[in-house]
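Protein modeling request. Please complete all fields; requests missing the sequence field cannot be processed.
Requester role: graduate student
Desired output: 3D structure, token encoding
Chains: 1
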Amino acid sequence: MFSVGTRLTRLTRELRSRDPDAAMRAAAQAIPDWSGGTRLGEELKEFLDRFGQRGLARGAVVVIASDGWERGDTALLGEQMARLARLAHRVIWANPHKARPGYEPLTGGMAAALPHVSAFTSGHSLAALEELARLIGDPGHA
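Delivered output (142 residues):
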């Protein structure tokens, strides 16, 4: 598990606790750039260069939870999303703004990412997270 903000942070160790509250506290403490915006293109490139080819992304169901507000180069984000889509079994994007009436994925980051996403869902409520869990667990969903 990774957090992507202005830098890539691996959270595997912090999330090992069987106590969900302890795991979330540890993860929150490990993320130095919470609410700092995202440079998804740069961070996806780092993830794919360091971990993707070795197998962490190969054949995986990858979930990205982001509003798509990219602070970096949107062309790089599109390139890295294409690369991720080639490696992963599926890429699911959960955007908390998707449920808003009239929402359209017009930000540069969302426009660059969407062509490479298998499923685009909201992430704003318990029901949305249940839908996300269904998408993750559904092997027949493309």
